[in-house]
Amino acid sequence: MTIQGNHEQWSAVDRYVTERLVHADEALDAALAASEAAGLPAINVAPNQGKLLYLLALMQGARRVLEIGTLGGYSTIWLARALPDDGRLISLEYDPAHADVARANLARAGLEKITEVRTGAALDILPRLVAEPGAGPFDLVFVDADKVNNARYVEWALRLTRPGSVIIVDNVVRGGAVTDPANQDPSVLGTREMYDLIAAEPRLDATAVQTVGTKGYDGFLLARVVS
Ligand code: SAH
Ligand code: DHB
Ligand code: MG
Questions:
Q1: Where are the beta strands (DSSP E) in the chain?
Q2: Number of H helices and number of E strands within the chain?
Q3: Residue 187, Cα to own-chain centre: how many angstroms?
Q4: Å from CA of 120 to ligand 1 middle
Q5: Band of pLDDT at residue 180, cut at 50, 70 and 90
Q6: Cα–Cα distance for residue pair 157/165, rounded to 1 Å
Q7: Beta-sheet pairing, 216-225 with 161-170
Q8: How far does the centroid of ligand 2 lie from the alpha carbon of residue 88, in Å?
Q9: Which of these, 174, 127, 121, 179, lies nearest to 155 by C-alpha position?
C-alpha cells in the first residue's frame, strides 16, 4: 500500500458522492470562486466534508460554534447553515486578506447576522474570548488553522466548551506523516502533541478517522467533552 494511494479514484468517488448527496449551491460555489480569484490556497474542506461538518453540527443541536481558521469561509458557511436564526458562529483568522474574502462570502450566503470573523492570531484572541461575557460556552469547536498550535487550540477549546460539546480537528493524518518517525515537520510534531494531550485528558472522549478524496489522504479527529 502506498501513502499516495489512487488520488484519481478517490476524486472520482468524491464526485460520485457529492453529485448525489451534497447538493450544488450558488453561495458555496461563489465562495470557492471568490477565494480562488483572491488567490487563497484551495485548502478548504471538500464539499462532502463540509456537509459532514454541517450534519454533525445539526446532530449536536449546536447554537454556538467556534471555528479556528476561516480561510475564505467555506467551512464557515457549512457550519453556520446548521445554526438556528438566533445561533452564533465566531471564526478566527490570522490573515486579514483571508478574513475580508470570508466576510464577503458569508454576506453573499446571507449569514452575516449570525457569523463574525475575528482577525488576529488565534492564541491572542482565545484568551479574550474566555474573558468575554456571553461568548461561550460553544457547543461545537472546529479547529482548522496552523497545525503547530493544535494542542494549544484543544486546550482553549476545553475552556470554551461545556460537558457534551464537540471538538473537531481537521488534518490529523497528513498523508500518514503522523506515524512516520522520520517526519519532524513542526506541524506534524504539533499534531502528535495534540494526540498525546487528548490521550491524557480525561475530560475528552475522542477518536480519529482517516479520509481520502479530492483533498488527498488526511483525517478528522472527533472529541466529546465529558466533564
Ligand atoms: N476552515 C477553512 C480552511 C482553513 S485553512 C475551510 O475548510 O474552509 C487555515 C487558515 O488558518 C488559513 O486561512 C490561515 O491563514 C489561518 N491561520 C493560520 N495560522 C493562524 C493563527 N495562528 N490564528 C488564526 N488563523 C490562522
Ligand atoms: C493545509 C491546511 C488545511 O487546513 C488543510 O485542510 C489542508 C492543508 C495546509 O496548511 O497545507
Ligand atoms: Mg484543514
A1: 64-68, 88-93, 115-119, 138-143, 161-170, 204-213, 216-225
A2: 8, 7
A3: 16
A4: 10
A5: very high
A6: 10
A7: antiparallel
A8: 25
A9: 127
**Distances from the Cα of 41 to the Cαs of 71, 108, 195, in angstroms?**
8, 20, 26
The model's pLDDT over 191-218, given as tens digits with 9 standing for 90+, comes to 999 999 999 999 999 999 999 999 999 9
Which ligand lies nearest to the CA atom of residue 68 in the structure? 1
Q: Closest Cα to residue 125, out of 102, 175, 78, 159? A: 159
Strand blocks (E) in 59-171: 64-68, 88-93, 115-119, 138-143, 161-170
**Residue pointed to by grid coordinates 487563497:** 40
Query: What is the mean pLDDT of the segment spanning 87-94?
Result: 98
Which ligand 1 atom is at minimum distance from the Cα of 71?
A: 13
- Respond yes or no on whether the N-terminal peptide bond of residue 137 is cis (omega within 30° of 0): yes
Give the pLDDT mean for 13-26. 94
Q: Are 47 and 71 in contact (CB under 8 A)?
A: no
Expressed in angstroms and rounded, the spacing between residue 171 Cα and the centre of ligand 2 is 7
Checking if the pLDDT of 2 tops 70, the result is no
State the Cα torsion 1-178-17-59 to the nearest 10°: 140
Tens of pLDDT, residues 43-85: 999 999 999 999 999 999 999 999 999 999 999 999 999 999 9
Judged by its nearest atom, the ligand closest to the C-alpha of residue 31 is 1
pLDDT at 24: 76
CB 137 within 8 A of CB 161: yes
Closest CA to 130 of 155, 93, 165, 95: 155
pLDDT for res 189: 98
